[in-house]
Write a structure and sequence with these properties.
Largest sheet: 5 strands, antiparallel
Structural class: alpha+beta
Strand order of the largest sheet: 3-2-1-4-5
Number of helices: 2
Number of strands: 5
Radius of gyration: 29 Å
Shape: elongated
Helix content: 25-40%
Distance between the termini: 45 Å
Amino acid sequence: MEFFFVGLATMMAALVVAIGVALLRRGLRIRRAWHGGRTSEARCLRVLTSTTGGDSPTTYRSRVYEFTTREGRTVRITGNGGPDTVLEGDTVMVRYSADAPEHATAEPYRPVALAVVMGCIGLFMAAALTVCVTVMVIALTAGPSDDGQVPEDYPGGEYYEYSNG
């Protein structure tokens, strides 16, 4: 049974780490793009809209931008978020780093919000990993002892009959 709990906790820990690393990398890419020092004018080629159903539907919009780097390379990116006023054909300013223009961003830079989000992701990862490790430790240390020793106070073959009367 402990194999089940240890395996489940290990898989959950691996999933938490993978998602956390992906989110932190995205945050660092946005930060690097804004501090990369390069800007370019990008044209919005398409606005993609997706709606999640249910009682209160939510609409998400992402945009496909195309811009040319200083070196003359044409790059297309898909940007999430941003103002809803940007439509197909509009131009926006994108920021990118010279070594990774494919990670450009048209999102407004909010350093405090980015730091808070990255801190919360780190805290969530730490809490989730603590829970996973705690489950593993409990699964491995709790339970019956398998040392083969019979305790001294254990009844040794004497049977008592219970009589009612």
